[in-house]
Amino acid sequence: MNPHLAPELATFVRVIDLGSFASVADERGLTSSGISRAVSRLEASLGSKLLHRSTRRLELTREGEVFLRHARNILAMLEAAQSDISKETELARGHLKINCGSAFAHHKLAPILPAFNETYPDVTVDVSIADHRIDPYAEHSDITIRVGPLSDSDLVAVRLGSVSRVIAASPAYLEKYGQPASSKDLLSHNCLLLKGFPHQSNWPFRENGKLVEVAVSGNFSSDSAEMLLRTAIAGLGIVRLGDFLGEAALKSGKLLPILHDSHIKNEQPISALTPPGRQSLPRVRAMLDFLKAKT
To answer: What residue ranges in the chain does DSSP mark as E strands?
Structure first.
């Protein structure tokens, strides 16, 4: 590829982010045809078509999908190199995309965002919430928060802390259905389950020196941990959730801990994952430092 095509590379990525030539043209004070020609020059240099163009929308070709991932990494490395050379590594600016689960988003990330914004006013933040595993590359995520052991990948991991599990229910539910005295009692209770993680329906205990796993069930499940918290507080059933998710409800008495003496709390690491090279970008490094200090 022609090394002088870096502007066209950035234009191509921005077209994908905004969804049209016209949107990029408006942002840059140019014409739609000028933006289209820039992408065409990139395609000619690569010898491959990157976009299917129509009057309704733009769609990546297979080659375009492959190239987009590399293009983002190239631009990230260029930005990091430029920051180092200009000695402006402390000046965080630009757009930052974060993906995390609902529990972390509401109870860890949201409380620190005002302070982050005050400290780094030139960084715009886009938070995507999903209580299932996503592909950080496909979602164009700068920082992806994961709970639990990490699979082998080329992503760079930064340890943020840990989370333990707690089993709890509302006082209203326990008054109506009774307090479980042992793990087997859970089999006759309505247990609230997180969709997408089948293993989490097996709740672990240590009783009489032995490991016991109880396959719980119930009439409600959700792909949102935050939703399970809310329904448990409302009295729908018994829930097993991360300690920081249930912390406020447990302190206020809206939820009461259950079987905490025998329940195995399964402490798990919380990690921030970034694509290689992106962790050196000032805006990414700033958020990683904030997360380590504040969560």
So the answer is: 51-53, 58-60, 94-100, 123-129, 143-147, 156-163, 165-169, 191-194, 202-207, 210-215, 221-222, 238-242, 256-257, 268-274
From 118-127, 149-158, 226-235, the region with the lowest mean pLDDT: 149-158
231 Cβ neighbours under 8 A, 6+ residues apart: 192, 220, 222, 237, 239
CATH superfamily ID and name for 165-266: Periplasmic binding protein-like II (3.40.190.10)
The pLDDT tens digits of the residues spanning 148-184 come to 887 757 788 999 999 999 999 999 999 999 999 999 9
- Domain spans in the chain, listed from the N-terminal domain onward: 3-86, 94-159+269-294, 165-266
Token duo for residue 292? 């380590």
